[in-house]
Amino acid sequence: MLAAGAAVYPSARAFVAERRAPEVDLAPVTQVVQTGGQPAAVPVLVATGYVVARHSSEVGVKTGGRLASIAFEEGTRVRKGSVIAQLEHADIEAQLEAARRAVTEAEAALVQMMAARDEDVRNVDRQRALARDGITTTATLTAAEAAAAVSTARVASAQAAIATAHARVRVAEEALENTNVRAPFDGVVIKKRAEVGETVSPFGVAGQASREGGAIATIADLGELEVQTEVSENSVAKLTGTMPAEVKLQAYQDKTYRGRLRQIFPSADRAKAIVEVRVSILDADAHVKPEMTASVTFQEPRPASESVPAKGAAAPPAILVPKRAVVTANGQSVVWVVRDSTAVRRPVTLGRDRLDQVEVASGVLPGEAVIVGPPPGLTDPAPVRVKGR
What we know:
There is one protein chain. By secondary structure, this protein is an alpha+beta fold. It has helices at 2-20, 90-132, 138-177; strands at 23-28, 30-32, 42-53, 56-60, 65-70, 77-78, 83-87, 180-182, 187-192, 199-200, 215-220, 225-232, 244-249, 252-269, 274-281, 293-300, 318-322, 327-329, 332-339, 342-347, 349-354, 357-362, 369-372, 382-383, 385-386. The chain folds into four domains: 22-36 and 313-386, conserved putative lor/sdh protein from methanococcus maripaludis s2 fold (Beta Barrel); 42-54 and 223-300, Elongation Factor Tu (Ef-tu), domain 3; 57-87 and 180-220, CATH 2.40.50.100; 90-177. Strands 1, 18, 19, 20, 23, 24 and 25 form a seven-stranded mixed sheet that branches. Strands 3-12-15-14-13-16 form a six-stranded antiparallel barrel. Strand 21 (349-354) and strand 22 (357-362) form a beta hairpin. The mean pLDDT is 85.
């Protein structure tokens, strides 16, 4: 029994020691290869948001009515000023025709009034000549002059009637034009909100969202796309000027787009403690569509004081470890490197922060595994158990 116990004791002791070893999470030491001969930009903040068009419009009607025709579908490209829809307008066309005929009638009345005025003016001249010869009376002359004055007033009234008739024509033409819905700028219809036969109004109709008003289409200029995102008040100070950014779409994770901070809104949302930020997408392609979910990584280029590789030479690779893997012991930064279930303390020299990672100038090699959040009390070396194994 003693011999058997002696034989089993080392294995049992190793088993107990293994079971008592703390469980730890591991993370690999990664290496970022910086191509192009320039140091890579340093990420300072990540935010998520949605792709929006910088210029978009809910295009609606100026007057209420029933849609007679629609000249667009989702995806239709439209030009500024082109008619994209029309309301029924037979009644307005009839009003316009009546107004034009009223102009003709007023012009004919003016001709008559001018002829009568001219005749009355000639009659005044005749009566004055007769009065000088003593053939006519003063009363007859006065009556002729009054008739000429009345005719002149009638001509002025007829001219005013013509101007009024022309104004009514312009009103009818404007009303007819208001039945046309025109594109406010060059763009693409991204949403169709009405169909032929529907009754629409500038103030919306029952069942239509109040923010849409009388909109029948949403038009966007897809030439200028940007990401609308929100940044915490605590982090907005990290954003400066037109700092560069990387944009990734949730739908295409393997594709990265260049971005630039365009605007930090001048007011914050005190209920959410956030500030809205817009990031322009500089190289958007056909994959980028409005309302897509996107993540933005704001970047801070390395200071000019840092050494830059010679032209044509590649920048040295950056070695990264999670920030939580770094602890301070006796005033020195260290990590715990795990190999064959044994953790060994390794002093490291740190570089710049990269979000939740930090650059390591020396002390670890790419591919090694380090403990994330090392438990206190580890000895060097220390047996550990990896979670999930």
